[in-house]
Amino acid sequence: MKLSTLTELNAERAARRPAIVVTDISSGEQRLVKAADFAADPLRDALAKQLRMGKSGSVEVDGKKLFLNVHAPTAKLVIVGAVHISQALAPLARSLGYDVTVVDPRTAFASVERFPDVPLIAEWPELALPPLNVDHYTAFVAVTHDPKIDDPALLHAFARDCFYIGALGSKKTHARRADRLKAQGASDSDIAKIHAPIGLAIGAVSPSEIAVSIMAEITATLRLPKASAS
User: Fold this and answer.
1) Is 140 in contact with 165 (CB distance < 8 Å)?
2) Edge-to-edge, what's the strand order for the sheet holding 30-34?
3) Contact, 79 vs 90, CB < 8 A?
4) 8 A C-beta contact, residue 135 and residue 164
5) Which H, E and C letters describe the chain, residue by residue?
6) Domain ranges of the chain
7) What angle do CA 17, 21, 23 make, to 5 degrees?
8) Tens-level pLDDT at each residue, the chain (230 residues)
9) In which domain of life is the source organism classified (predicted)?
10) 134 with 100: CB under 8 angstroms?
11) C-alpha span between 52 and 156 (Å, rounded)
């Protein structure tokens, strides 16, 4: 790889922006495609597919064999609420390669004993979330059932364009939540981003089953084409 290409690639990675190095297998020629250029690139469909999969791979275009080396940011999961569901969700997400952080100002819940080996921040969302650099490659889950904690957290997630935003609660609970959030400046498009009731409808009952349904919905949102992810 040319030094100039490597320098550009490292800059994209440092900024947590995806990029793909396209290599002509026969000639060895390489070019870097940045996220901002995906839509206009002749390989846009192949680039989008490999990026969704999060895997590098070979494609053949116009008789040329190309290798697409995918460099995607490590996905984050921010869980607001150190509850029973979170105890099951955090290790499940870590096993899938997510960087997981649990936020809950209630120190009785946010304890090392309940969440071994998981970063915990026992602060209110207004203080805890800004240093986490939440971004588009972050899945955001609010599960406290306490508007004083969940609502400001969700507003933060809207502002940071998280790829997945989910919140615990029934349809009635979510309707009340939507009214509160709109009163605080959230738009209809913001509210539409929330997956609520949270998780895929698999008949989940126990905290562990609910955690599986949440992680399945996050995975579908990340990996499937947008039209198929809902």
Assistant:
1) yes
2) 30-34, 19-24, 64-71, 57-61
3) yes
4) no
5) CCHHHHHHHHHHHHCCCCEEEEEECCCCCEEEEEHHHCCCCCCHHHHHHHHHHCCCEEEEECCEEEEEEEECCCCEEEEECCCHHHHHHHHHHHHCCCEEEEECCCCCCCCCCCCCCCCEECCCHHHHCHHHCCCCCEEEEECCCCHHHHHHHHHHHHHCCCCEEEECCCHHHHHHHHHHHHHCCCCHHHHHCEECCCCCCCCCCCHHHHHHHHHHHHHHHHHCCHHHCC
6) 3-71, 76-228
7) 170
8) 888 889 999 999 988 899 999 999 999 999 999 988 999 999 998 998 888 888 899 999 888 899 999 998 999 999 999 999 999 999 999 999 999 999 999 999 999 999 998 999 999 999 999 999 999 999 999 999 999 999 999 999 999 999 999 999 999 999 999 999 999 999 999 999 999 999 999 999 999 999 999 999 999 999 887 744 44
9) Bacteria
10) no
11) 25
Question: Is the peptide bond prior to 105 cis by the omega test (within 30 degrees of 0)?
Answer: no
Alpha-carbon Rg of the chain, whole angstroms? 20
| CATH number of the structural domain 76-228 | 3.40.50.720
CB contact set of 165 (below 8 Å; sequence gap of 6+): 139, 140, 141, 142, 154, 157, 158, 193, 194, 195
Cβ neighbours of 43 (radius 10 Å): 17
> Quick one: tokens of 58?
């070979």
pTM of the model: 0.87
Measured in degrees and rounded to the nearest 5, phi and psi for residue 21 equal -95, 120
Structure tokens at 159: 């502002």
| The two three-digit tokens of residue 100, written as one number | 């997981």
